Amino acid sequence: MHQNKVSSSGVQIWLNFVVGTLSSVITCIVFLPVFHKMKCTCLHEYFIHRYNSTLIRQLFSVIFLSFTIIYMSIVIYAPSVALSPVLRIHKWWLVLIFGLCTTLYTCIGGLKAVVWSDSLQVLSVFAVNLFREAILMYSGVLTLIVQGLRHPRVGGFGRVWSIAVESGRTSELFRFDPRIDQYNSVWINLVSGTITWLASFGVNQLAIQRYASLPTLQQAQRIIYWTLIPFTILCSIVAFVGFIALAYFYNCNPIETGEITETDHLTILFARDILREFS
């Protein structure tokens, strides 16, 4: 979904994802050794050994449940909104379908299935002969980029970049102003992104359970390091799709023309138009 954000607002969300690599390194160096040394399988154990306080443990449980409910709601709702106009299925039916599928997958496969799916989704780009879903995912994005750049309305890489610069979508990429009373800058993304991703990679209950499922500290660190470069590459090429979509719809906003009603549908509409001509 962040390609829609790049197309509508700019490159700041891409910077936020790239900063996630720094948080991953901090997690490997600072957090993982502590959790593995204590043999913690969840944060509850850490709070018990560190503070020995029932109140803190209960407070953490409430915060974690609230965060997880909100997070899972967004994660399921976002693709439902994006795919609804393409599949011609109401978004609430898609929310129900996605929720049931992920719940059944986790119940049947357990924690090991969750770890494998998270790792293979990114790492399988290096083993396409073994994992067919990787071929579909990455070749689909690359096909969209190639066909988009070749389209007359886009005009190639040079025009894509010039439109991105002209429309101000790349301004945050070179904004090093340290003031905090602005919408975005490199420093804001560096600080806020590091804190946000540390909350996801370092002290997140779900992440710690995944790390604990691996037998050694080195394996847990290795799996994080292995995902850094593919993660950055994937975020970059998906963000570039947002720039291509911006060039495709430049001076012809599909929301203003009534083709779509939400910016979340922008990339889906772009992919449908490009691939329809390709087929």
Automatic annotation (TrEMBL):
The keyword Membrane applies. The chain crosses the membrane at residues 13-35, 55-80, 92-115, 122-146, 186-203, 223-250. One of its GO terms (cellular component) is plasma membrane. Its main location: membrane. Keywords: Cell membrane, Ion transport, Membrane, Sodium, Sodium transport, Transmembrane, Transmembrane helix, Transport. One of its GO terms (biological process) is sodium ion transport. It comes from the Eukaryota. It is found in: Cell membrane. One of its GO terms (molecular function) is symporter activity. It is a multi-pass membrane protein. Gene3D superfamilies: Sodium/glucose cotransporter. The keyword Transmembrane applies. Belongs to the sodium:solute symporter (SSF) (TC 2.A.21) family. This is Sodium:solute symporter family protein.
